[in-house]
Design the sequence.
């Protein structure tokens, strides 16, 4: 800051006048609560979250939420919890009054503890609370508007508590301008209820009101997966993998979706710390890292994670909204999340999502509903009769692209299998046609359009994208070799010269040694060109020009702060894509079966490096439904 700018800032700052107009003074209790409300109660959903947390802390097993106007006009939360006496009600609307902690923040085991929610709501809205303790002769009611207590009196009410909030932010109308539409605010309240419902499956939640259809989550007891199915849909139950991991004093449990069961945003990722729903960027980042190279760009996994640890090892007092947490050992927690998810995916994540088969069935059904025959009889055509069609025995026709029987060898000219894959094909016995149940992915029966392998299993069929599947296999082999030894390479008889912008050449050469570890030897060839002298042997024939240009583009977009290991794996994924069995390649039966067998033995083979599914499975029952046989 220059001297002139400093003088300007001093001259324009408020001055304390002799008459004391700008003297320091104590703010009123109402204004203090309104300031606090700006942090705690940002929107109707924030108020709903605080009130539901209070109900759960009171031991409620039935919670009913009613809204109107997106929660701005009305928000009512009723519960069957422990309730409050009249003296408790008087304190409940005062700031920093709570029954949940005493003198320390080291052992917080409740959802609420700050004592700010009710006075904050009462300072900006019209608040009434009616409550009664079980076994008490009567209840009591308190009403607050704009921070002022209107009355405190006995009132008839059922055991439990009813909190009613009307005209939210009427006392601070400027805040209303920052709220979204009623529909958006109602949706935010719905999301809060969903998160609470997942965290507390023993409680029954009912969400209703004039601005929504009724949403009910019946209690499921200790069956957490059943409650998740209520919130996320039954499809999640069919595509979920259970987590149960422990590292030192931190445990992780929950369920995650298979990689091919993904969504267009992160709204289907739920995290809980000691039972508290949180939306912590650190946890979401760990989930994203665990699913790296298994989810397409722009898609997000479905996950429900519950982290349990000593309350002293996590700070839940980071923000008044209590949605963020801070771990004492974040590296331990991240390692636990990433390790547990990757182990679960390696164990069970290769199965295809049921959504793929369901989508195929829907597409078939839609097509069938609009099906019209290609040939239609003209008005002069005679009606068809069996006698009108001459009978002749069925003779199978030569079928193109089926991978069995005689075919011209020219179909393989210039398209030899990469070395590693050819060796595998020769070493694995093909599946016997009469016993498709021997293997999870079945026995290859046909190849369609020179890209899709159709295999028969004991209870259905599998359709495999040969390029996507082989791409994943090559990548996993490259990644394995990357962490153990230098990959073998093949020397090009004539080096391939690739013309690039000088800055692209500079970026590529920074990683020349690392690329050499992957079997790709490059060197500078003048100011604007790269010479490729060796390529990875396992890739077979590869378009070096296209590979180098794509690597240059990707390196230019890298975040320089990312780790070298992650970058090298990204390079390996790109190289694997260029060296995989291409679409349009006709395969022999033994090659198709070898591909299936190696998929079964390779972790992560259920999706390609870009996260797309490598195969779709149709059960026999699904096929029979298509033909109306079930």
Sequence:
């Amino acid at each position: 800051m220059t001297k002139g700018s400093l003088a300007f800032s001093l001259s324009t700052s408020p001055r304390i006048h002799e008459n004391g107009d700008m003297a320091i003074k104590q703010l009123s209790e109402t204004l203090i609560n309104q300031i606090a409300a700006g942090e705690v109660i940002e929107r109707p959903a924030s108020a709903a979250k605080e009130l539901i947390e209070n109900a759960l802390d009171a031991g409620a097993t039935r919670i009913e939420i009613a809204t109107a106007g997106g929660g701005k006009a009305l928000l009512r939360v009723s519960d069957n919890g422990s309730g409050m006496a009249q003296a408790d009600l008087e304190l409940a609307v005062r700031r920093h009054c709570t029954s949940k902690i005493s003198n320390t923040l080291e052992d917080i085991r409740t959802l609420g503890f700050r004592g700010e929610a009710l006075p904050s709501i009462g300072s900006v809205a019209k608040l009434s609370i009616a409550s009664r303790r079980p076994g008490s002769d009567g209840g009591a009611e308190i009403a607050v508007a704009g921070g002022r207590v209107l009355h405190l009196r006995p009132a008839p009410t059922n055991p439990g508590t009813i909190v009613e909030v009307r005209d939210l932010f009427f006392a601070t109308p400027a805040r209303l301008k920052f709220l979204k539409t009623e529909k958006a605010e109602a949706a935010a309240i719905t999301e809060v209820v969903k998160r609470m419902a997942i965290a507390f499956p023993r409680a029954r939640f009912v969400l209703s009101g004039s601005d929504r259809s009724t949403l009910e989550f019946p209690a499921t007891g200790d069956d957490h997966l059943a409650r998740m199915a209520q919130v996320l849909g039954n499809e999640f139950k069919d595509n979920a993998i259970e987590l149960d991991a422990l590292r030192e004093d931190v445990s992780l449990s929950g369920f995650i979706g298979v990689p091919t069961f993904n969504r267009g945003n992160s709204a289907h990722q739920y995290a809980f710390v000691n039972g508290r729903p949180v939306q912590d960027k650190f946890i979401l980042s760990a989930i994203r890292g665990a699913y790296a190279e298994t989810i397409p760009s722009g898609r997000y996994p479905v996950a429900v994670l519950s982290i349990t640890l000593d309350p002293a090892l996590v700070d839940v007092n980071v923000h008044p909204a209590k949605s963020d947490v801070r771990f004492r050992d974040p590296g331990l927690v991240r390692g636990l999340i990433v390790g547990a998810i990757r182990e679960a995916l390696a164990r069970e994540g290769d199965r295809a999502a049921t959504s793929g088969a369901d989508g195929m069935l829907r597409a078939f059904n839609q097509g069938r509903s609009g099906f019209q025959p290609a040939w239609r009889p003209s008005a002069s055509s005679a009606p068809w009769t069996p006698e009108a069609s001459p009978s002749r025995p069925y003779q199978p026709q030569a079928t193109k692209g089926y991978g069995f029987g005689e075919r011209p060898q020219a179909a393989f000219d210039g398209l030899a299998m990469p070395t590693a894959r050819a060796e595998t094909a020769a070493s694995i016995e093909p599946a016997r046609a009469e016993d498709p149940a021997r293997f999870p992915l079945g026995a290859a029966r046909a190849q369609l359009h020179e890209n899709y392998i159709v295999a028969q299993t004991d209870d259905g069929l599998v359709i495999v994208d040969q390029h996507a599947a082989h791409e994943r296999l090559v990548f996993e082999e490259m990644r394995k070799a990357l962490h153990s030894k230098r990959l073998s390479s093949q020397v090009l008889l004539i080096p391939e010269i690739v013309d690039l912008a000088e800055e692209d050449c500079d970026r590529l050469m920074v990683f020349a040694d690392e690329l050499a570890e992957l079997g790709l030897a490059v060197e500078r060839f003048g100011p604007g060109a790269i010479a490729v002298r060796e390529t990875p042997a396992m890739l077979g024939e590869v378009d070096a020009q296209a590979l180098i240009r794509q690597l240059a583009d990707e390196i230019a977009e890298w975040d320089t702060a990312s780790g070298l290991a992650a970058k090298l794996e990204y390079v390996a994924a790109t190289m694997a894509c260029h060296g995989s069995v291409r679409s349009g390649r006709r395969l022999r039966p033994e090659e198709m079966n070898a591909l299936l067998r190696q998929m079964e033995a390779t972790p992560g083979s259920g999706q390609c490096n870009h996260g797309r599914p490598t195969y779709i499975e149709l059960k026999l029952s699904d096929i029979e439904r298509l033909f109306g046989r079930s």
Summary: The chain has 20 helices and 24 strands. The chain has three domains: 29-216, 220-348, 351-365+400-556+563-630. Residues 351-365+400-556+563-630 form a domain with the Ribosomal Protein S8; Chain: A, domain 1 fold (CATH 3.30.1370.100).
